[in-house]
Amino acid sequence: MKRTVYLAHLTAVGSSLGWVLHRDPDTYRYIPESIRRYPGARGVVALMEQAGFRDVRHIPVFGGFMAIHVAVKR
User: What pTM, to 2 d.p., does this model score?
Assistant: First the structure.
């Protein structure tokens, strides 16, 4: 629920900002779309492991709002 509200807010703000700055409400539409498709920190870990990295881990930053991913290339 919180994510849905956040994405709706981001879409509205991005559209408004796009209109005010560029006269195009779709200018920043890619941002919430990118967030919607983001698999999350654990999902990125899984993708990195599937790509052949080892010792993959993530370090939450800013209360989990962001993450740093660390891995070793095989």
Answer: 0.69
Q: How many degrees, rounded to 5, is the angle at CA 5 between CA 45 and CA 42?
A: 5
Token pair 């990118």: residue: 34
Average pLDDT over residues 23-49: 92
User: Residue 27 and residue 68: Cα distance in Å, rounded?
Assistant: 28
Residues 30-46: b if buried by 16+ CB within 10 A, e if exposed: eebeeeeeeeebeebbe
Distance (Å, whole) CA 21 – CA 69: 34
Angle, helices 2-22/30-37, rounded to nearest 10 degrees:
160
pLDDT band at 2; cut points 50, 70, 90: confident
